[in-house]
Amino acid sequence: MAFNTRSFITTPIFYVNAKPHIGHLYTVVLGDAAHRWAIISGAENSIYSCGTDEHGAKVYKVAREAGMMPDMYCRRATAHFQHMLSAARISNNKFICTTSPTHQQTVHQLWHQLQKRRLIYRGTYQGWYSVNDEAFYNTEDVTTNSDGVKVSMETSNPVEWTVEENYKFRLSVMTDRLLEWALKPNVIIPKLAKDQVVSWIKQGLRDLSISRPSSRVPWGIATPSDSDQMVYVWFDALCNYLTVAKPLGISELSSPLWPKVVHLVGKDILRFHAVYWPAFLMAADLPPPKRIVCHAHWTVGRVKMSKSLGNVVDPIGLLDKYGIDAVRYFFLKDGRLEDDSDFSEQRINSLLNYELADNLGNMLNRVTGVKINPSQTYPPFHLDVFPLGGYSPQGRATVEDYELLETMSSLSGIHMSAVLSNAIFSLGGRYWSSIILLDH
């Protein structure tokens, strides 16, 4: 079934305090599969957006430690993520950085919308704050670990008691509207994530601090009317989706993209995307996201990746060693939404040898063999997908599709059809796009 509406898929914008790891690559590969399938299926003006989150205390600290000004550090760090997207041939057609002037305008516009509705007020915050998570936590969300350190129960990262003057958003008044939205079918998937969000909302929502003193966070976007306060980094970051969808300003509600947005997020940032973000939007009389798809993480040896443990897997090295298609197939095949997946090179080799080489290779040999097809004739290409004469922007096939056709056609005795050339992508891409887009 062809798409008759526009497609708008986003990944989170990635924090630039460290280089990319395979968790970042996994997220963009999932979004890439859904985006490519949307285009092949006829989606009009499909948008796939990625980017980097360049503000906040952590970025400022890392930049200082590197002996660099924050803006210079961000440019260098963002280049690493752009290189990863290019190396993996990710098909995003939008890339946003939160340091862009256009984005700052969007942040201020949303702030003004909420302020105009008297949903922002100045107050005193007393509670726990995690610099690692850039997140505020209630006392019931904090525990003491085996070393006697106060940590977030959600992330296990250290927290510190904080008392500061800042601006707050009246999140508490959004409880009923948020619950009504979260309970709708297919708004939050999988069910495990939806149940978690519903539980958070039913537990009761407290007003949320949406700024921090510039004396504590000197690198960010200042609040519109108070230069002594910086916009909370998550308020800033979440606005990136509006910056992409509504470049003319959030007051322009005629954008055909925004109501169609699908956010692809990791489970560690579900609360920000499925509680705070829709609350900000609805409070400003903007439609909440069409869908939030939450995926699990990747471990190595069943242990969370950590620089201190030395088990962080470099995505560029992985792509160089195994090739783009092999790595993409691995992530699409082994990645899961509800449960963490475990990375191992042994598993990659197993997939390459037994599934791609043996199973798909044998299938290819069988369906193109003389016994099954004595005349060696094959169905013609669909011209909407594969225009005659090679790649064309008017077609739905990508440059990679034509390269795959050329490679397969060069094999002795094999004349590839468009259907077979897309076999590898279709095995994983159609499955994931059916989950992310739910349009078939």
Mean pLDDT: 86
Q: Give the helix proportion (percent range).
A: 40-55%
Count of extended strands: 19
The major pleated sheet works out as: 7 strands, parallel
Give the helix tally. Answer: 15
Give the low-pLDDT segments. Answer: 412-427
Coarse morphology: globular
Report how far the terminal alpha carbons are from each other: 6 Å
Radius of gyration over C-alpha positions, nearest whole angstrom:
23 Å
| % residues in beta strands | 15-25%
By secondary-structure content and strand pairing, the structural class works out as alpha/beta
Verbal overview:
- This protein is α/β, with parallel strands linked by helices and 440 residues long.
- It has 15 helices and 19 strands.
- It has helices spanning 22-40, 57-65, 70-87, 101-116, 175-182, 191-202, 233-238, 240-245, 270-283, 315-322, 324-334, 345-367, 399-409, 418-421, 423-437; strands at 6-10, 14-15, 44-53, 94-97, 120-130, 135-137, 142-144, 150-152, 160-169, 188-189, 208-209, 211-213, 222-223, 226-231, 261-266, 291-295, 298-300, 303-304, 341-343.
- Strands 1, 2, 3, 4, 10, 15 and 16 form a seven-stranded parallel sheet that branches. The protein has a four-stranded antiparallel sheet with strand order 6-5-9-11.
- α5 packs across α9 (270-283) and α10 (315-322) packs across α11.
- The N and C termini lie close together (6 Å).
